[in-house]
Description:
The chain is an alpha/beta fold. It has four domains: about 5-70; about 85-140, CATH 2.40.50.140; about 165-310, P-loop containing nucleotide triphosphate hydrolases (Rossmann fold); about 325-385, Orthogonal Bundle (Ribonucleotide Reductase Protein R1, domain 1). It is about 35% helix and about 25% strand. It is built from 14 helices and 15 strands. It has helices spanning about 5-15, 20-35, 50-65, 110-115, 115-120, 180-195, 210-225, 240-250, 265-270, 310-315, 325-330, 335, 355-360, 365-375, and strands at about 85-90, 95-100, 105-110, 125-130, 135-140, 145-150, 155-165, 170-175, 200-205, 230-235, 255, 280-285, 290-295, 300, 305-310. A six-stranded mixed β-sheet has the order 10-9-8-11-15-14, sandwiched between helices. It has a five-stranded mixed β-barrel with strand order 1-2-3-5-4. α1 (about 5-15) crosses α3 (about 50-65), α2 packs across α3 (about 50-65) and α6 packs across α14. It is globular and about 65 Å long.
Amino acid sequence: MDKRQRRRLRDLLAKLDTGERDRLTKRATKLRQAALRTMTGDGRRPELEDFLLRLLDEQEEAAAGFAAAPSGAGAPPADLDGSRRGTVIAVTAGACVVQAGGDSLDAVLPADLTRRQQSGLAVGDEVLLEPLGEGHRVTAVLPRRSLLTRADPHDARRARAIAANIDVVVVMVAAKAPPLHPRLIDRYFVAVERSGARAALAVNKVDLLTDAERGEVLDLLQPYLGLHIPVVLCSVTTGEGIEDLRDVLAGATCVFVGQSGVGKSSVLNALHEDAAAKTGAVRAGDGRGRHTTSASSLYELPGGVRVIDTPGIRRFSVDAADAVTLADGFAEFAPYAARCRYRDCAHTHEPGCAVKAAVDDGAIARSRYTSYRKLLGGDDDPQLGDGADDTV
Ligand code: GDP
Ligand code: ZN
């Protein structure tokens, strides 16, 4: 960041009130953490200030009425210089498919993006394109509102971008079959919190419950009801909750994560109403006979719900996190954590820990605190189904 940008950032920040400044700083910190996790070593490490300025720029743009329309809702046509803006709907080797104002365009990636494509570009990314020959070339990846990442299987410290600019991550569990493990929910919530997206909890297959079991499930869910996270009980079999889920997701771009077998595909199908409404495969070619078919990973569901579904999301797993990031995933800890004796309290053995005191008082659910401790200890808990194929 140069001097001029620094001055501009200072001026813009000075216009905000403290609460707004804190909120922005928190968002910028998260975005920076996400970006650092996806860095591959080439390129400069972005500073917090870079992200702050980006967020402020976005806000200003939005206030001025230039906020980019979500593509699909009529993305802007080509600029005077022929450059266009669109949403990445599929990523292939060295190229991607971009939806721009109703067109699906094949675009090649510049070399540096190709090199770190696994981490550098994801479905949901907003990009700028310029014409190249008969096709297009990506010239820039625009700042992300959120980024869902997963650990690189070959290097756990590195992360791969799996979906960008998601508004809501729907964490889906089954009320029964596979059995409901609150700890699994907590692990997902930590990952959602890190991504910068909002979480929603869908508890599917409630048709399988007896009245008594339903009561038990509601007890297990009690800690989540005060978290300002929508919780929807649903069943594909009876249709219960499906429309509630649609309402929760209206107008949002979302992804569904959860163990295999909980019913993600079934619920998505139920939300489709009509499978034909799915804007499925995109056929794209370069016009020279070398045709490629890329499956679009971005669906439009009735009720204004956009869903990103990729193999990466299906394999989505929750990786290790440090204490601070981890505690962020437990929103109800925050008011107490602020009162711990030590600022960097990990809420484990420290004297004067207000979080532990709140657990003892029953103000924080013990099950959630236990989850936190287990996650902090890197407990992988094989019974939760972290198999190679059925990762969580
Ligand atoms: P995914 O792996 O999460 O996509 O799960 P699927 O959608 O493939 O569903 C796994 C199994 O659960 C299938 O046999 C579905 O028919 C079944 N299933 C899905 N939703 C429900 C539900 O609400 N109730 C019951 N009883 N079964 C369901
Ligand atoms: Zn503490």
